[in-house]
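[09:14] KT: can someone run the structure on this one? pasting the chain below
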Amino acid sequence: MKRVDVAYSLIFDEVESKILMVKNNKYNNWTLPGGAVEVGETLEMAAVREAKEETGFTVEVGDIVSVNEAFMEADGHHALFVTFRAKAVGGELAIQDTDASVGISEVKWIDLDAAAELMPYHKNGLKVMLESSIPYTFQGVKK
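[09:31] RB: done, structure tokens below
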């Protein structure tokens, strides 16, 4: 299996108590904005890029709120999913990644409880993710 690192952004509207989610065409499911880390890209850079591509928003990412892992046998991937807390700081809601087979078909703000039901792999729920975190530090390039 090929190792794939995936970075997500948990974008929360505190006033409305909603999470920004995207409908993924490839798996026909709702997820947080995110995707595979590209060569030469940090986890943080990938989370920012993917959020922009999938939602139209420019985000600032903070600490990590979740790390999940899965063997995606159908894809031949051993995936590590890293989710950052993020805040929209610019842009407007507009899907950039519209590829019919692997892109995003819809983006919307979803109530916190409904969002948690759409992502059962976060066993402790989204509320816990919003209340806790661990620091993320890119240590630079070592020679």
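[09:33] KT: thanks! The helical segments are 43-55, 112-118, 126-131.
[09:34] RB: yep, looked fine to me
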